[in-house]
Amino acid sequence: MSKQRGSLPEVVAACCPPLAVAPLTGEQATNLAPMFKALGDPVRLRLMSLIASTDEICVCDLTDAFDLSGPTISHHLRVLREAGLVDAERRATWVWYRARPQALKQLAGLLDVATPAAV
Amino acid sequence: MSKQRGSLPEVVAACCPPLAVAPLTGEQATNLAPMFKALGDPVRLRLMSLIASTDEICVCDLTDAFDLSGPTISHHLRVLREAGLVDAERRATWVWYRARPQALKQLAGLLDVATPAAV
DNA sequence: GATCTGATTCGATAATTGTCAAGGCAGAGA
DNA sequence: TCTCTGCCTTGACAATTATCGAATCAGATC
Predict the structure, then answer these.
(1) Which chain B residues 74-93 have CB under 7 A to strand C?
(2) Where is each HTH arsR-type domain found (chains A, B) (predicted)?
(3) Residues 6 or more apart in contact with residue A95 via CB below 8 angstroms
């Protein structure tokens, strides 16, 4: 799977100029909002940070990091998955999660303000 | 008001390293999530883009851009305001909104992935 | 096959949220 | 002062969502 990591890459990545540069159309906003929404929950934001700050991480380790039930963590991971922010891969007994750098980069690009070097 | 733009600024701005660098604590996630949540609605994301892509913009212009009632727009603007993403100022009859670049920058920094130039 | 462990799905419930209609407040002008 | 306009607040309601327990599924091991 590490081979075909190019499933939905650049297409999404090259969506829109930064918010500070041009307003979004309704459609663009509708497409992008779910990603922000996925990060808009403290549990998911922390899950995302745990996933993004390692190469890959097992669900068991993620579950241990919270005082929440397995199904609840699973639910939040699904939201992150469906938003396109993370990828999941089952390997033997465990499921491993990893971040989608392109997605994060896209969001970062949207929020970009007055890139110092670009001036 | 443009003078005392220092109401809740730098404190928030210097929060955390990028998600991809270090995981967030529960408290950090709790503080940051509301900003993402505020952007997690298509209407608000588009509002934010309209506000951020101009110097300042009147509520009347924002309302005109949507097929939504005044109170609904007002509600969304309040969410953006309370998340610290925008500032509002009443001038005569109209209320003007402007973006808080620091807030956007903070979020962009959080999502920053492997800054090419930093390698 | 039987069983055990890790993770997801299902079903239910309480809490949050997006939306609007109605009402209220602030400033401008008659 | 009265009225008009622009915006916000309140109250209500439908829809969404966060959470958990129970059930189910996927592999591994016996």
Answers:
(1) 75-76, 79, 90, 92-93
(2) 24-119
(3) A58, A59, A88, A89
For A28-85, what is each residue's pLDDT tens digit?
A: 999 999 999 999 999 999 999 999 999 999 999 999 999 999 999 999 999 999 999 9
Domains of chain B: 23-113 (1.10.10.10)
Whether residue B108 and residue A105 make contact (CB cut-off 8 A), yes or no, is: no
pLDDT digit string (tens) for B31-87?
Answer: 999 999 999 999 999 999 999 999 999 999 999 999 999 999 999 999 999 999 999
Give me the residue label for tokens 């110097």. Answer: B55
Q: Cα(A16)–Cα(A105) distance, rounded to whole angstroms? A: 12
Residue B117 buriedness (CB in 10 A; 0-12 / 13-18 / 19+): exposed
Q: For residue B66, give every residue at least 6 positions away whose Cβ sits within 8 Å of its Cβ, in sequence order, or none.
A: B43, B46, B73
Extract the tokens encoding B25.
Answer: 């604590």
Nucleotides of chain D touched by protein CB (<7 A): 5-11, 17-23, 26-28
A51, A65 Cβ separation under 8 angstroms = no
- CA–C1' A115–D30 (A): 61
Tell me the C-alpha distance between A2 and B104, whole Å.
33
> String of b and e for A36-59 (b: at least 16 CB within 10 Å)?
bbbbbbbbbbbbbbbbbbeeebeb
Cβ of residue A39 closer than 8 Å to a chain B Cβ: yes
